[in-house]
Every structure is written in structure tokens, then in C-alpha cells.
Records
---
Amino acid sequence: MTTFARSRSRLALGVVGALVLAGALLNPADAAKPDGSRIPIQVETGSSATGDPTHALTSGWWGHEGGGNNGTGTGSTFLSLDASNGTNTVDDTTLAATLLALGAPDLDHIGYAIVPTTSNGSNEDPAVVAGQNAAEVFNAGGAGRVLYLGFGGAMNGSTLANDSVTVVSSKSEVEAWVAAGRPLQTFNNNLQMVDVSSGNVSLTPQGKSILNAWPAGTNLSLVAFVTNGMDPDLDNQVPLVADDGSGKAKTAWMPFTTVGKPGNALRTSAGYQVAGAYAPTITATATSTSTGTSLKATIKNKANGTATDATGTLQFAQVIGGVDQTPTSVPVSGGAATLSLSGFTTGSRTYDITYVPDAPAQATYLTSAPKRVTVNPTTVSLSITGGSTSDTLKATVSPKTAGKVSFKDGTTTIGTATVSTSTGIAQYKKLLSAKKHTITATFTPTNTSYTVSTASKSVYKPTISITKSPSTVRHGTSPKLTIKVVATGTSVSGTIKVTYDPASGSTKTYTLTLSGGAKTFTLPKAVAGTTKITVTYNGHSPVLAATKTYSYKVT
């Protein structure tokens, strides 16, 4: 059970010791104070809230400050405000002026809520009726949440699987929880609230963990408000909100954007980026070749174009048993990065891919939400069969899955065919010209969890020439035929089938072996009329089969 905590500490006035911070620091003039906000609001790390604007963090991780850009630090996050009153020092005078500007009698009468950011401040500076509590006032159409922490309240994380840092509650959640008798609750490893008495996921959870209450990239505002007691109707769990005499709450706020924890699809709001930058999206494509599989991730900007200005790393974390493993960090170049999965040819793997900006990119980009990708390698084999009127290009995809195969001759696309899911085969017919052809078949799956795969083959389309001797054939003579099969750029071997079809009499078929790509043989005695000769070269890799018909008259 979490109750609202009012800080009993006071600002450390006078000289504030230097702090080593994990996140970026604001200059005093840069403290977060949007139009309409009474004072600047900030969060800090270290040993306590100081109110010193030079300690304000511009980015970080709730309850896990420090440790770089991966959300694994151990520093606390303190809810604070800028108590310098626009100066470079914090003392009793500046603190008094700050409290006066906010309209708070002291630091103990400051509470915090989180609401969706609005351009006109309507969520951050709402109307209030006497007796309303913070969950009501900052409901924001059901999207607002109240924190059970006041000024100086510390958010502390842990290394446990159910690390939740702190609870944030919507109006409906806290009301249902109080109505249920405020059951003692904790979080499970999926960050669901569990009733301790039963061990079951609660039907009336007090709220959510701040680490997964919103999607990554959500624009929110941390609102500090003045309190004037606790709401007895909610068992004094949530503070009442003081009004300024005109029916408005007395508030100040800090806009921020949620950041997902790298390699952790569950903790989508584990971090924050104060104003300005945004979390890009990630797309991913897996490709298989004969040597292995690779996974390419591309960073997309707000316009859905490739974020070529993004620098930093893409973190590829393999998911095993639902748990992200230690990620592999790949530097970003041109808005993308590729992870080699050499040796991975069968089965499937799942990865969470997260973009983590480096310091120069943090002015524009936040850490992205993890993109989960399942990779199923495919292979494609290519066969090419020569024919008399067309040649057949056949791609066989394994495993059998829906998609299309694009066939290229060199760099020119010559056709596309749909893969049969029953056979895994895609075929395309085209009569190739007599020369060398380098054919590439590229399989693109319908289901993007399967990989793109390619296969290439170089083949030669031959020419067949037929000459007879003598040139004039007379009845009763036995002419000779010389058949040559030529494939420029390679030698030709193998067999030919010769079909002899005279004007009268029976048709005969001969199978002959080429020597040096040629064969000369003697035909049967000629009969008057037209004789038709059909020569079929049977093909011998890398030379395709081919057919030629030749006719002559016998006198």
C-alpha cells in the first residue's frame, strides 16, 4: 500500500555541494517554466531535493538515475522545484519568494500529478471546486494520474524483476481501491498489481507503475499543485487541491516526454525527456543469404522518413522466454544499423530493438520504444530451364510461406511471381536472348517476421546452327548434317536430340554427344519432298537447353 508522502525535509540552503548527475543538466535560465506555470518545476538526483536549478535534470530514468542511457542506474529521482526565484542562489529569501509565487504556505503543502500536455495549459491549470481531491482535479478525461509523493519525495528503483519505482493512480483506480478497503498490494513481474492476501492480479488495483503507465513517446506534464489537507472520503490517501480564489488550482508544471527502457518492452515510460526532443519509431527488415541472416533496423522521424541525422546506437536484445537478454549495441550510420546473425538459418528468434541517442542527438531524439521483431529465416533456390518458346525461372522458397519473388536479369527486373503456399514455388516464363544472363530471385514475404532471401545463378542461352552437305540433296542420297551449339563465354558439352522427319516414311530420333560443342553425322537416304529436322540441345550447366528447327527440300 502506498500513501501520500509529505516531505518533512527542508532545502539545504546556502552553498549546495556539487553533484555528479547521470542526466543532462539545465542552465538556470532553462528551468522548465511553460507559459501559465507559476514557477519552474524540476526533478533532481543526488541525496535530496535542493531546489537549485543547476541540479535540474533534462532527461533521466525514474528511480534509476545514472548508469548511462539504459535505465539501469541506482540514483533516486527527487520531485523538486526551482527555488532560486530567478537568481543563481537558493536561500531563505528566494525560497520564500518561490512559495509566494506558487501560493503555497510551505513545502509540505505541495503535491504532484501527471497529466497529458496541453498547449493551452487546460490540463495543467484546471478549475477546482472546494473539497475536490487531486485525482478529481487532475483527472484530465481519465488520462491524468496522481503521485503519492510531495515535494522532495524520492522515487527509488531496484534490481528486482518486479521493480515498479512508484505508483501513479487515476481517479477511477484510487476510488475503486479505497472502496475495496485499500487491500495491501504489490507488483508482479509483469508490473500488474497483485492483492497480497490472495496472490491474484487485483480487480481493484491502486494504480500503475510509473514505469509502464504510458507508451513511450507520450507528451506529459509533471504538475506541482498546492494542497490544503487530505480527502477524508478517500481515507486521507489523496490530498485536496487548494484554489487561488478564482476557482483555479495553484499549479506549476514541467512538460516531458516518456522514454522506453532499452531492450525492455514492458517499461515503456521508464524514462523522461524534458520538452523538445521526441522518441522516433523503429522499422526492421531481416534478410537471409547463403552465409546467414541479418537484421536491419531503421530509425524513422516524425515524417516517417529515415532519420539520417540520428546518431548513437541501436540496441538489439534477443528475447528468450519472454525476457530481454543483454543487448548488442550497433552504431547508427545514416539512420540505420544492421546486426549480423551469422549461422542462424532455421527456427526463429525474437528481438527487441531500441534506439539510444548519443549526446549530440539528444537535442532532437529520445530513446525509442522497443520494436519487437520475430525473425524466421527463409531460403530460396533458383532453377532455370531453357525452352524453345520461353525459358522457365523457378524459385523454391523454404519454409513454404506467402509472398512474392522478383526476378532480375542483372539490374533489370524482368518479372514477379506469387509464391504458392502449398508448394513454395514461384515461376516466371520469359524467352531469354542468346547470351550470358545473371538471374537473381528475391523472395519478399507477406509476413514480415519471415526474412527476405535471395538466390542468384548465371546461365548462358546458346545458339544452334545447322548446315547440310551437299547443299542440294537429291533423292536416294545420304547427306551429312553439322550441328553446332555455341554459348559465347563458355564451352558447351552434353547431348543433342535430333528428330528426322522426312516427307514420307517413318520419323527417326537420334541422341548424339557433342564434341567441342559440335556434331556431324550422316542422315538416312533422302526421299523426295520436304524434310524437317528438329535439334534439341538438352542443356548442361551452366548452358540452358535450346531447340532449333531446320527444313530442306529433296529433289
---
Amino acid sequence: MTSVITGDIINSRDVLTKTWLSVLKQSFNTIGETPKTWEIFRGDSFQIEIENIADALLFAIELKTSIKKIKDLDIRLAIGIGTKNFDAARITEANGEAFINSGYAFDYLLKKQNLALKTPWEEINEEFEVSLGLSLLIMDNWTVNSAAFVKMYLENPKSTQKVIAKKLAISESSASERRKRSGFDEIMKLEKRFRTLMNQKLTNL
């Protein structure tokens, strides 16, 4: 089993390409090398493989924070979970259930929302169609400051709120307010739920 994320940048033409492209590449390089693991094509579209399916949603959230930190930008992400039947030197030439599911999510599900999931398990698809839709009511409206706060917490998961506040050069009360406004705790509960379900599925394979 593997996971594939297909996506593109929203409003990419409104911002200098180098502004967001370097951010995108920096995130992708933490996973692997291009073009085997990830590839950018058609200017602002991309595909990346996350081999541990339990990590897919967390990476998607991290990617959204990185792009939302740039004023006026957002990102569409379609996560596909499944098998990989054909490996290739370029990820865009590989194939399998995960790639098909990611493509389906990108072509159809992203018409309704900016983050979508398609797995081989219908009960999970139904659950996350609802829960992701609700979480996006918050994430799509992240300000630059909210995105920066969530990103800092994700990069320093063991840090206290006091430490996070210091890193962001804000007061603890401001950090507390940003945490509430960003929906951080609720979004992390959703990520934990996804991780638990994926690990259960892997155990049962």
C-alpha cells in the first residue's frame, strides 16, 4: 500500500512563481527526490508519493500551512490510497490503485472542496468526505499568521506553547488565541483519527 497526493496551487499567477515554488520544493525534498518520488508539471501542478499511508494527511496539512503562509495563495490536494502496480523512474509514469484514486479525487472530489481523500474502503471515504469538509471551513480561512502558527507547532510537536510563542515572537496569550482560531487541536484530532485507521488497515493486510 502507498499514498499519492496530486495537487495544484490556487492563485499561482497572482504571486511570483519563485515565491511559492521554492516552498513547494523544500517540502517535497523532505520526502524524496524528483522525479522518482515527486514531480511538478504544467507550471503549478504536482504529484508526490508518501509511502507510509498513515503519514499522508499530516503531510497534506503541513503542505497547506506552508502555502497559506504566503499571502493570497492556497492549495488543492487529492490524497489517493491503494496499491502500486507499476513503478517507474518518474512518479507521473507510475501506476496503480493509489494513483487512480488520487486522480479520481483530483478530477471529481476537488470540485467540492480543496482537500479530498479516496481510499479502497468506502466507510473511510464517507467519514472523511464529511470530516475534511468541516475542517476545511477552518483551514481554507487560515490567515498568514494562523498558518504560520500551525506550521511552527507541526515542526516542533514536543514544544510548549510558551516556546512556540517565543519562536514566533508573540505573547503567550496571542499564541493561545491563534491556537483557538486556527482550530489546531480539532485538526490534530482528525489527523490522529486518520492515522489510527490507516495503521489498522495496514495491520489487517
